[in-house]
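Project standup — Tuesday

K.O.: blocked on the structure for the chain from last sprint. Re-posting the sequence here as requested.
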Amino acid sequence: MNPKVDEYLSKAKKWQEEMEALRTILLDCMLTEELKWRVPCYMYKASNIVLIGAFKEYCTLGFFKGVLLNDVDGILVAPGENSQTVRMIKFTNVRQIVEMESILKAYIYEAIEVEKAGLKVDFKESTNLIFPKELLDKLEENPVFKTAFEALTPGRQRAYNLYFSAAKQPETRVSRIEKYTQRILNGKGINDCVCGLSKKQPNCDGSHKHLS
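H.V.: unblocked you, prediction finished:
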């Protein structure tokens, strides 16, 4: 048990009990526990296997190479329509987790076997976008950010990529990416208002400040 994860869970405002139950199952599978990208991450040797995630409406187990799992129980979902690798299992109460313990362990052990076998995801070109190196580096080094970016609609991805790529200096591109990281993690596009609508859309009543 990693003390950093202890601290993370002690400060959780939601899904604390559910995440504790998931943690117990993952540790029973003899995975190494770390806090990476500010969330609990479970590893086999040096390879990332699964993350515990907490969202507004549910908590999750997010498998890094979930697309390679057989999913015999049909419980894996993609974070977004463009996600090619990560697959998640969603939970809304502890009872679900307790009742699914044996199934969850089977999925975890399968994910470990996928890693042992050295299996790789066959990436397909989902867009015609050419990302700048700085964005590619960010996607590579931060799986949480990568999952969030892939979950954006193609139009939102395109808008971000256009803005990031427009900067001539690498330092400026890095700065822009960092500035909008939290927005991307929240699932919002670069032109989205706090109400969730694009500032170009007429349905927003304009009663609050649009984000830029």
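K.O.: great, moving the ticket to review. Residues 101-116 form the longest helix (16 residues). The beta strands are 32-36, 39-44, 47-54, 59-63, 87-91.
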